[in-house]
Amino acid sequence: MSHFIRYEKSPHSERNDRKNLKRMFPFIWEYKGRVLLALGSLVGAKLATVGVPFVLKDIVDTLDTQIEQKLLFLPLGLLIAYGALRLVGSLFNELRDAIFARVRYRAMRRVSMHVLKHLHHLSLAYHLERKTGGISRDLDRGTGSISTILNYLIFNIIPTIAEFALVAAILLSKYKLEFAIAIFTTVGLYIGFTLWVTEWRMHFRHEMNAMDSAANSQAIDSLLNYETVKYFTNEKHELQRYDSTLTRWEEAAVKSQTSMSLLNFGQGAIIAVGVTIIMIFAGQGVVNGELSLGDLVLVNALMLQLFMPLGFLGIVYRQLKYSLADMDLMFKLLDKKSEVTDKQNATELVVKSARVQFENVGFSYQPDRQILHDVSFVIEPGKKVAVVGPSGGGKSTLSRLLFRFYDVSSGAIYIDEQNIKDVSQQSLREQIGIVPQDTVLFNESIFYNIQYAKPGATLDEVIQAAKTAHIHEFIDSLPQGYETVVGERGLKLSGGEKQRVAIARVVLKNPKILVFDEATSSLDSQSEQAILTALREVAEQHTVLVIAHRLSTIVDADTILVLDKGKIVERGSHTELINANGMYSKLWELQKENHKKT
Length: 598
Description:
The chain is of the alpha/beta class and 598 residues long. Helix 6 (177-224) packs antiparallel against helix 8 (235-287) and helix 13 packs across helix 15. The protein has two domains: 15-335, ABC transporter type 1, transmembrane domain (ABC transporter transmembrane region fold, Up-down Bundle), CATH 1.20.1560; 354-431 and 542-598, 3-Layer(aba) Sandwich (Rossmann fold). Helices cover 64% and strands 10% of the residues. The strands form two sheets. It has a six-stranded mixed beta sheet with strand order 6-7-8-3-9-10. A four-stranded antiparallel beta sheet has the order 2-1-4-5, covered by helices on one side.
């Protein structure tokens, strides 16, 4: 069995790092005062750091002069100044980090909120195709990249450039030209080598990211489908798929690490040769009497002080490239466009009588496959319309269109004469409640899951809703009652129990329009009758759309629509359709026969 993994690369050529950095800027500028104060602390730390070698030079020259004069005394003032500069440098560095902490973590928080908000605004079409594990990992790495970029850009790259400029100015003003030429040449070779090798090895990192996201997506997917894996005893298959992806990740990781070792050695070699040449120049200057021992120490200290952060700059550059790649994946999520959007002048839906009208509605998920053809019907205020028919006929699509998870391809849907395309999606969905066929619950308490329909509802309101849904007694019998955690996707509850929780939720929401999408499909006959009674109570004084497979559940509907291959082929009451001896009548007889057999 072969295991092919599809993944998307994020090539550098498709990235726009400058644009991404500009998009990041507003998230940090909220605390611009702190940013400027942190930069001020940074400048103070660098001035203190560069001052240390000069004090050290004075200490050496003073002691050297005293040795020549055979009169030694401790240059206490210079030694105290040396210690004070180091202390001040450390203080400013820590002060910088403490001041900037709020900026960094607030930016991470705001970006995370922004991305999650955007994902919630994307249409259902995107979420049906998404890979949750991969998105989770991209989001995690993307927000982490904000912190990394801020940390390296503000606290490493800018200080190193400032320090290099100071050292270069000192060398040009106090020493021969060859010192500056040697430093400029060394730094130029170092930067050029670092950029060249880093660009060459970046594709290893891209492949690592892609395989990491793919492996994470596979692992989460297999755990979410734990029961399916067990049903088909496919544990070995899932592990093989996971290991196949991790094998490719491992190969990319090994290549990334070995190429990093090559980069580090090359950087070290360039620095070693450069420092050696500069020290030869300084040593020759002392021999010729042009420089003092203090100058030799000063040049050495400046070189070490410059090349230490420059050596780290290679790591910084690599991490910045990786972080920019990670941030690019996150911003690509933000660039995803929703297929369903509110109009610029969208109004709030005002519901008075709750009359629902489908007018010549046509719809297709893909252009080459039409799902609905000129569907027209009206649900009068306080009435119940049921839709039945063979599987794949487009029944559940009606509810998705009513909720505006998708926009109709042709025709229109009206609520109280208002086209739902002209109103905001939030105001539309606030007026509609649904009991779906597949109820998915949060991994929280039963109380939380029922209260979710009306955040802030009291325990008494939740209990009353549960009683209406005939689930209160079951909840009350549990050791932790309403605080019982239902597990991921509600897996600790049976299908029937989850549907009753969904019914309790819609009871608590109490909208003017109700949709029951196979609302009793997971219930046994006895429970079904109890729930049907509850649903009838809930449906009173509401406009109701029922999508049903069991015809016995909708015999009391005011109008029944028979939908076949996206077209309404019959409509009428239960009695009228039975007497018509058409598709509905045949479905009714078939279900009666099946019921007798069971």
